[in-house]
Each structure stands twice: as C-alpha cells, then as structure tokens.
Amino acid sequence: MRKSQIFTLFLGVVLFFSACRREISWDNRVAAPLFRSTLNLGQIDSKYLDHTASDSSYKLSYENLVYTYRMANVRAYDTGLTASFTLKRLKLTDRSIVQQITLGQINPLFKLLDGQTANIPEQNQGNLTPVDIDASAFFETATLDSGFLDISISNNLPVKVKLVIFELTNAGDNSEVAYDSFTNIPIGGKVTKRIDLKDKTVTKTLKGSIKQLVTEASSGPVLIDASKGVDLELTVSRLHPRYAVAAFPTQNVIDQNEGLTVFMGGAEVKYFKAKAGNLKIKLASTIQEDMTMLFEIPSATKGGKVLSSVVKLPAAPPNGVSTRDEFFDLTDYLIDFRGKDPDVKDTVNTFHQILVVRLDSSGRKVAIGLSDSIRIDYRMESLIPDYAIGYMGQSLNQSGDQKAPFDLFKGLNGDLKFKDFKVSLIVRNSIGAEGRIKIRSLAGENVFTKNTVKLNSMSLNNDILISAPPFRRDAFVESEIVLDGTNSNIKAFIENLPQMLDYNLDMEINPNENLNLYKDFVFDNSKVDILMKVEFPAEFSLNQFVLRDTQSVDWTAIAGLDRIKSAKMDVRIKNSFPLGAKLQLMLLDEKEKGIASLDIDPADNVIEPGVADANGYPTAQSETVFSIGIGRDKVDALKKAKFIAITTTLTGDGKMKKLYDNSTISISTTVDFEYEVRYGK
C-alpha cells in the first residue's frame, strides 16, 4: 500500500512538470481615433487634430514640408594672407663717413714747407700710400643685394685738381669695392660719383687708395698747409643686404594697409554679421631682434570697438625660431565688406585690414642672412553669417525627380471619400530676395496600393512669384495656391491617401538679377519652404481602410524558452469605432522583416462594431475574444520574433461618418506556453 502511494505521488509530479504552463501578456492600445497612432498606433499625429468645440469631433489641419531651399552659397570661404620678409625687405641705415688725405700724405716734401709761402708746381703722383678707412659705423660686413656708395672728393688744396683716380678695397682680401676717376675739381670744390653696390661684399675695414693725382701749378706763391688736402666722404644709402652682421635700425619690415577679398560663393556682400568664426594668426621669426605686430581690421566692429591687437614676438635664439600664435573669436562682429574706403570706392566681399610689423632695434650687431625671415600667416576660418546684406546672386536650383514623405496618411490605405476639405500649396519665404518657383510635376503615391495620382492644376501652370520679407529675423512672407475641384484634380489626389510625394521643380533667386540694388539679405536660418497644407473635418465615407501598428516583444523574462513546443494566444479586442474590423498578426525579426503570420480562424476573426448613437457618437464598446493556436511549425518563428505587426482592417458602409475622440480599438493578449519535460534538468 505504501509503495502504491509513493508511485502515485511520483506519477503526479511527472505529469505536473510535463504539462507545466507559463504565461505572458501585453496590452496594445490601437491608440486613439482613426487618424491617430498611425491610425493610432501613430498614423496621424495628434498635433494635427483639433477638437470641434460643439460635439468633440475632430478637425484635421496638417502641413507637410515638400521642399526646402537654403542659401548655402552665402558663406565666407576660409581666406588667408601670408606676409613675410627676408633681407630683401630689410634695410640698413643710410650713413656717411669722412676720411682726409692731406697734402703731406700726397707729397712728404710739403711737410717741410708747412707754414711757408711758395709756388706749388704741377703735381702728378701715382700709387699713393693707401689710407685705412673704418666703416664699422655701417656694419661689420654685408653682402648687398642692392644699394649705393656715394664717393665725394672735396678739394681743400690751394690748387685745382685735374684728376683723381680712386680705388676702395676690403682690407682683408683686397677685393675691390669701388674704382672711379674724378676730374677738374676747383679749389674749394666737390665732385661726387655713385657706385652701384649690387652683388658687392663690403667689410668694416676698408682701404682707400689714390692711384693717380694730377694737380695744376699754383698761379703764384701760396701758403702751404700740410694738414689740408683732399677730403674723401663715403655715403651708403638704400642698402638691402643678402647677408649682414650689423646693428639694424628700428624699422617697419611689413606695412600693409589694403583690402582683402573673400570669396562668397557667388553672393556680393556689403555687410556681414558673424554668428561664428575665428581669426588665427601665426608668427615665426628667425631674426635675432624683437618684433612688434599691429593687426587691425577697421571694418570689423563689436560693441563699437574695432578688432585690433598688438602682439610682441621676442628675438629668435641663434640658429633658432621664435613663434607666437594668436586666436580671435569673430562671433558677433559686424564686418563692413565695402572695402578700404567705401566713400571713394564702394566694393563688395572686401574687408579693410592693416598689418604692420616693426623690428625693434636693440642696438646690438646681429647676423642676418637670406635664410632668415619673418613669416605671418593669418586666416579667417569657419565664418558663418548671423546675417548678410548685399546682392545674394542669381541662382537656379533644379531639384530633379525627388520624393518627400507625406505623413498624414502614414500607415493608412483603403477606400475613403472626404466630405469637405481645403488643400493649398504654400510657399513660405524668409530669404530677403525675390524669386520664383516652377512646379514641373507633383504626384501623390500610395506605397501600399502602388497607385500614383498626378496633381493637375491650371494654377500651377504659371510660375509662383516670391517676394522678400522685411529685414527681421524669422520674418517671412507666404504665397498660397488654393487647390479645389474647380481648378484641379485635388480630390482624387487626396483620396488616394498618398504616403509619398513625387516632385520636380525649379527654384530661382533674383531672376531679374540685382534689381534690389544690394539690399538683399539672408539670416543663418533663412530659407524657402514649399508646403502642402490640408484642412478638413474628420468626416468621410468609406468602404474599407487599414490601421497598422508594430509592437516590440521581449522574451528575456520567459524561462525555459528553448523547451517550448507549442503555445496558445488568447486575443481580447475592444472596439468603439462604429465599424467592423478584421485582425492580422505578423511576426517580425530584429530588422522588422516578416518571419511568419499567425493563423486566425476566419470564423473567429470578426471584430464587431462599437455601439453609436444616431449621430455616430460612440456610446459603448463591442468585445471580441478568440484564441490562436501556435503549433510547432510557428513556435520557432515565435521564439525569434522581436516585433509583432498588428493590422486592423475596418469596413464601412459607404456612408459619411464623423470621427470622435473616444473611438478606439484596444487589443490585449495572453500567451500560454506548453513545455517539454526534460528529465535530469
């Protein structure tokens, strides 16, 4: 007896586990009225629906963006300026030195006669002893790209000088610097010759040699002064060295005061208010002297202040580079793009900039060669207008064949006839320029039925003219083309329930060119929008139409998913629409692609209409309950499902009906799973 009880208990446990049942349920509210929740489930967004105060029915007001145009060409493309100089721009100081060659040096005999009165015979001396000349006041050494040496000989002798042949050489290697002749220098007179120093190397230690000196005889006894003779004056000017060791004077090595043109992509801008942008300056110098840079854009102002800066750049170390980076935020700067002096020459896309770089002399002698330089790079970058004023250019934008979603009827198809409605094409312009639009074609496509209806209207045969709004941010003007049964086939177009608009159009700005005389404007958000606007009460006749929704499925809470062998789904539907309906359920994978449909017995798949009063106002819900068997052939698909697509097809009687805010279809489901018994688990 005891063994029999144990056996019975064991058998009961086995049967319990072999028939173990789990349950999952979720509620789907096929939200809101027809025209909601993709009817609902999102078909028509509630923001497009307004209650009619008298009876709480709905009125539909919907705007769908078909096309938008922004003036992308109105932007300041990155613009830079590179300024640099080498020794070709650097100057040495103009200076003079005087060296005297005395009568005693010309002929030692005159030293014996110093202070006496005597007749001076004609002199013809050659190869006089060279005279050392200290030119360190000029530089230590310089190889000159250009420059001049003026040699002046003044005659302080008591006789006329008929000829002087003079040579100037570098003392170190005796290389020639200058060689020239001077003739007929009267008593007390002076003669100057200019020597071109291009490609010459000159050192601080020079030798001056009189190769030949010829004088006339005195006309009688004259006072001999051995300390007087010929004064030699050397003057250097306009020296531009290739290499020099010198004390360079303070000087502006870069001095620019001019207009800089910016490319605006076809627009001709007079004024530009920057919403964003920056100015970057990079300085690099190998010069062993301090530098000062003055940068200013007189035409760029913010709060009444001009954009300017003074930047110091220290001397470069020997064989090194001194660098400095500067950054300026151009946000909110108003830039006058009319050029340097608009009262004299009014231009476009050109800002006035001043750039001065000064070498600040320390008095030290430093070595500078052609490889040394100062380089300045400055760039206006990412300059975006808050607004721009000028001529926005003439532009033609041809869209070609394009598509735009029409979300009003998203997820909806069927046989609907609307009672009253108004449809308009609206052109909304916030660009401060005139224009015109040519609608080449416009068609509505129902993606479910694959039916396309082309919009035909006499009102669209002509160009739609666009006027400019007032100069104010967010201001716009609208042009409206009303489409009705007298001028178009708009009724057939709308009742096709399009989810997609196929269009081809031309958009032209300033077709008459600069008719506005540089008074066009554009803000950063200026655009031209073409919209289709639909207004009608939610009252229509229908034979059949479809509401769709997709719900996600989460199996993570279900234990033993791999042991499920079959399932049963209980479906409970509450319907307050005054329309009967049928239901379809499709299992979808993670990419929302169909895996398998769930089989609903046609006898069960009859959703009863809700109860309504004489005006069609819902007064009570109908309730439909049925079960869907899910056998082994569908269980695998059920396990893989990430989404369930819900389709409800509502059927009408062809009579006009209103849509009220309490019309809903709600679906709730409960799933019972049957598990396989796996022993040893």
Write the layout of secondary structure elements.
Elements: H1 2-18, E1 21-30, E2 49-51, E3 58-70, E4 79-85, E5 95-102, H2 103-106, H3 109-112, E6 117-118, E7 123-126, E8 131-134, E9 141-155, E10 161-170, E11 176-185, E12 190-196, E13 201-203, E14 205-215, E15 222-223, E16 229-246, E17 251-261, E18 268-285, E19 290-302, E20 305-313, E21 322-329, E22 334-336, E23 350-360, E24 366-368, E25 374-391, E26 395-398, E27 402-405, E28 413-418, E29 422-429, E30 435-446, E31 451-454, E32 464-466, E33 477-483, H4 490-495, E34 500-509, E35 520-523, E36 527-537, E37 539-552, E38 564-575, E39 580-588, E40 594-597, E41 611-612, E42 618-620, E43 622-630, H5 632-640, E44 643-651, E45 656-658, E46 665-675
Antiparallel strand pairs: 1-46, 2-3, 3-36, 4-25, 5-16, 6-15, 7-14, 8-14, 9-12, 9-13, 9-16, 10-11, 10-14, 16-24, 17-23, 18-21, 18-22, 18-25, 19-20, 19-22, 19-23, 25-35, 26-34, 27-34, 28-37, 29-33, 29-36, 30-31, 30-32, 30-34, 37-44, 37-45, 38-43, 38-46, 39-40, 39-44, 41-42
Can you put this structure into words, describing what you see?
The protein is mainly beta and 681 residues long. The chain folds into 4 domains: 18-57 and 542-675, Jelly Rolls (Sandwich), CATH 2.60.120; 63-71 and 396-537; 79-86 and 248-391, Jelly Rolls, CATH 2.60.120; 95-246, Jelly Rolls, CATH 2.60.120.
Q: Please give the CATH architecture of the largest domain.
A: Sandwich
What integer value in Å does the Rg equal?
49 Å
**How many strands appear in the DSSP assignment?**
46
The quaternary state of the protein chains shown equals single chain
Largest sheet: 10 strands, antiparallel
Query: So what's the overall shape?
Result: elongated
Low-pLDDT parts are: 1-53
Count of runs of 4 or more consecutive helical residues: 5
